[in-house]
Design goal:
Bound molecules: adenosine-5'-diphosphate
CATH class of the largest domain: Alpha Beta
Distance between the termini: 104 Å
Order of helices and strands: HHHHHHHEHEEHEEHEEH
Largest sheet: 5 strands, mixed
Shape: elongated
Radius of gyration: 37 Å
Strand content: 5-15%
CATH topology of the largest domain: Heat Shock Protein 90
Strand order of the largest sheet: 2-4-5-7-6
């Protein structure tokens, strides 16, 4: 009798024992019986031809029909299953065949099972990898959906908040005018009305920031390119920041660096907004009496602007985080609605907006700081890289200024 005949003799008992001992639960037993029949058939083919790859097809089917919980297991279910099948086969050989025949059949089956074991580990790993990739893709889609709905929510909420706020502002102004006209305004009532007005202004700023964030996140920030001279923007910035700088007894130096008086196409409103955020952070995170310097240099095709302060600095691990939406650091108890108070953290949108604006111009922004230290104050330097545009970009409104580029190039 050759090995194929020996294998055929153990067929009925192998099917019965495999079904009874390896399939748990009656439903599964019915289900597995045809699988074991097929496995045995292919095992016979492998023995007959000497080619173990006959088993590959059924092993692949087993690997692709693993359940979700089996795929989530870190151990290999199928390698264990195949090992049990091998042990059972050897037991049956020893119990039902004379010793010599059992040994010769085991000798033939061993390399076939070794090949099968290698294959099944590979198929199972492939199934697990594809399952995990699918899971990851789903998680990514969910996160993208959540991020989009968060931005949509911010946009809708911001617009809904703006309307009643404008009404409050309008009514407060009418009330003040009426009281002043009727000469019934007292210092106390004027103080209250001033409070309402500055509160609504601050709310307006926050709502506008929220709208800007949702526009940046949805790639909807559209720039209106016009001729811009950086030194003029710095002048406006200086005038705006002067009261805060004086109140905090800080020193603001704006250097007349090469390139700052040359014209470039940019969105002046948006650039000013980005620079304003950087300067107001420099004021907030620098102690009283500290120094702030705006400097820069001209590089081929780019202009670099630096906002340097002698403030508390930023830890290296936080230097990327601060540009994220709501990427404010530190103690939330120090949250302050004041724009100038030392360490008075805001909602954490300023740098995210500045980054969005600079990137929309085709530039980049990053920070350098030796670390965070409130006693030594190592300071921070924010770098802004802006492309120099001597021609209006592909924006129809910018063409209106085309003649300017030929006549004026520096100011
Ligand atoms: P916030 O409204 O909190 O100021 P920003 O987006 O402007 O939000 O800044 C995010 C965080 O980055 C701040 O909470 C602060 O911790 C840190 N940060 C920003 N600018 C500076 C700076 N010049 N020096 C030290 N820390 C800074």
């Amino acid at each position: 009798m050759d090995e194929l005949d020996l294998l055929k003799t153990i067929h009925p008992i192998w099917i019965t024992r495999a079904t009874q001992s390896l399939a748990h639960g009656s439903g599964l037993r019915d289900n597995l019986r045809p699988q074991f029949e097929r496995f045995f058939e292919l095992l016979e083919q492998a023995v007959e031809t000497g080619d173990p790859s006959w088993l590959d097809s059924i092993l692949q089917i087993w690997a692709t029909s693993l359940t979700e919980s089996e795929l989530e297991n870190s151990w290999s279910n199928l390698t264990v299953f195949l090992r049990d099948l091998l042990t059972l086969t050897f037991e049956i050989c020893r119990e039902t065949l004379p010793e010599g025949q059992a040994l010769s059949l085991i000798g033939v089956l061993l390399p076939i099972f070794a090949h099968a074991s290698q294959r099944i580990a590979q198929y199972e790993m492939e199934s697990k990898i594809s399952y995990i990739s699918n899971q990851l893709a789903q998680v990514r889609q969910t996160l993208e959906r959540l991020d989009r709905s968060k931005s949509d929510f911010i946009a809708v909420a911001a617009h809904e908040l703006k309307t009643p706020l404008t009404l409050i502002e309008g009514y407060a102004a009418i009330l003040r005018e009426t009281m002043e006209a009727q000469k019934i305004a007292t210092p106390a009532s004027i103080e209250l009305l001033t409070g309402i007005s500055s509160g609504t202004h601050r709310l307006h700023d926050i709502i506008n920031d929220m709208i800007d964030v949702s526009m940046i996140d949805n790639d909807l920030l559209s720039l209106s390119f016009q001729p811009v001279w950086l030194n003029r923007l710095f002048k406006i910035l200086e005038n705006e920041a002067r009261p805060a700088i004086n109140e905090r007894r800080q020193k603001l130096e704006i250097r007349n660096f090469p390139g700052c008086n040359e014209m470039t196409f940019a969105d002046p409103e948006r650039l000013l907004q980005a620079f304003r955020n950087l300067l107001s952070n420099a004021v907030k995170y620098t102690p009283d009496g500290g120094n702030i310097r705006i400097d820069g240099r001209k590089l081929p095709g780019f202009i670099e602007i630096t906002f340097q302060d002698s403030g508390i600095g930023i830890a290296p691990e936080d230097q990327a985080l601060i540009f994220e939406k709501f990427g404010r650091l530190g103690n939330t108890a120090l949250h302050s609605s004041s724009k100038i108070k030392f360490k008075g953290g805001g909602p954490g949108l300023g740098l995210h907006i500045a980054k969005g604006i600079i990137e929309a111009h085709g530039g980049t922004i990053w920070v350098e700081s030796a670390g965070y230290d409130e006693s030594q104050c190592p300071g921070s330097t924010f770098h802004v890289f802006l492309p120099i545009r001597t021609d209006p970009p592909n924006d129809p409104s910018a063409r209106l200024f085309a003649p300017l580029t030929q006549t004026t190039h520096s100011s």
